[in-house]
Design goal:
This protein has 13 helices and twelve strands. It is of the alpha/beta class and 396 residues long. The chain has a single domain, classed as Alkaline Phosphatase, subunit A (3-Layer(aba) Sandwich), CATH 3.40.720. A hairpin with a 5-residue loop joins strand 3 and strand 4. Helix 7 runs antiparallel to helix 9. The protein is globular and about 65 Å long.
């Protein structure tokens, strides 16, 4: 069995986790010290969430004119500041807003926006320009430069996003800790190891294979053992996002050394009959995050945690013929934390009188939010990770 065959046949590489040789060299038998510092939890709205029906300019006549069937009335929203309201299905987020825990950044995007789901998500994941193609993610580069083990960045999914892929290290994708551990249980490794020993291998390949076996098991066992330490008694929604955030909150309470957690909520590509689908998704998000914050407050971990929520693009200002919205450009981003530097509505409202090809025009580059989290929260150099100096909004 050579290295290529081993990678192809090994079950742990198809179980939702990715490893690299550099990771093995850096972390075999490495320190698994408890968490120190601050952490970021990122929630991705996959599909392109409609920001205008999330943070709503409900008093703007142009908004209602552009969306005769989709616009939300004053009675459909919970009033915020600056003549904006939040979707009425997001009471949990509205309550956090009233406590001063939420920053809303409007008109977030990038120059020359792309309306393709895949390309725009790649741009957000890599922190690249729209005409620049990069093979590593911004969190993967953070791993490469500042972390000792791949489980410093964990994604709750069965596949790993580009955002978490570096040159030398890649984050860990975990559907749930027990599932992850069970797929890498020792019996499978023993069987593979016996097969390897039967074959003639040079010392280089033998070292690679045995280190891979050992490290895969070590990482899975570490996360699983941490997941057993504490079980939340807070009532989370019985949804995939709710379960993911509950599991993340339990790992945080356990003292796991992970710096960044990444989760997703899909279904936001609302070309048809948008109101019902988006309302359901936003309620799930709002209820899940509210329960998550409640648990973090209870366990004393909220002051060290910031939650960022984004989507790859917004939707067009005007509704389409199917009572939905098509792919757009600029959108809103949420930051949620206990001691934010700027609270509430951070910047100007969306300008519906000044559009480009039917889209909102961005005024905040999304990379400035990344830079803020890197420089001022995780206390690392954003210019090293983003490959350029970017002005921050000083949100955290």
């Amino acid at each position: 069995m050579n290295r290529r065959d081993f990678i192809k046949n090994s079950s742990f590489l198809t179980a939702g986790t990715l490893f690299t040789p550099m990771f093995l060299q850096q972390t075999l038998g490495g320190d698994k010290a408890s968490f120190e510092g601050k952490r970021v939890v990122i929630i991705q709205f996959s599909g392109g969430n409609d920001g205008l029906n999330t943070v709503v300019p409900y008093l703007d006549d142009l908004y209602h004119k552009a969306r005769p069937n989709l616009s939300l009335k004053a009675s459909d929203v919970i009033k915020l500041d600056n003549d904006l309201g939040i979707n009425g299905n997001m009471k949990g987020i509205a309550d956090l807003y009233d406590k001063g825990y939420v920053s809303v950044i409007n008109n977030v995007g990038y120059p020359n926006p792309n309306r393709s789901h895949f390309r725009s998500m790649d741009i957000w994941h890599t922190a690249s320009d729209s005409d620049e193609y990069i093979q590593t993610g911004w969190l993967g580069r953070y791993l490469d430069s500042y972390c000792k083990s791949v489980d410093s960045v964990i994604e709750y999914d069965n596949t790993l996003s580009l955002a978490l892929k570096g040159v030398n290290m890649k984050g860990v994708a975990v559907d749930q800790p027990y599932t992850f551990y069970n797929s890498l249980k020792v019996g499978q490794f023993d069987k593979l190891a016996k097969e390897v020993k039967k074959e003639s291998l040079d010392e280089h390949n033998k070292g690679y294979l045995y280190k891979t076996l050992a490290e895969a098991n070590q990482s899975a066992e570490y996360i699983y053992e941490k997941s057993k330490i504490y079980k939340s008694k807070i009532d989370f929604p019985n949804s995939y996002l709710g379960k993911s955030l509950k599991s993340i909150s339990e790992l945080i309470k356990s003292g796991i050394h992970t710096k960044v957690f990444y989760a997703s909520l899909g279904g936001f590509d609302t070309h048809v009959n948008q109101k019902t689908q988006q309302s359901r998704l936003l309620k799930d998000y709002s209820d899940s995050v509210a329960a998550f914050v409640k648990e973090l407050e209870k366990s004393g971990n909220f002051e060290d945690t910031v939650i960022m929520t984004f989507s790859e693009f917004g939707r067009r200002v005007s509704q389409n013929a199917s009572k939905g919205t098509d792919h757009g450009a600029a959108n809103n981003v949420f930051l949620i934390g206990k001691d934010l530097q700027q609270k509430g509505i951070v910047n100007e409202n969306p300008d519906l009188s000044n559009l480009y090809q039917g889209d909102l025009i961005y005024s905040v580059d999304f990379r400035s939010i990344y830079a803020d989290l890197l420089d001022h929260w995780l206390n690392v150099s954003s210019s090293e990770i983003l490959s350029k100096k970017i002005n921050t909004l000083r949100l955290v």
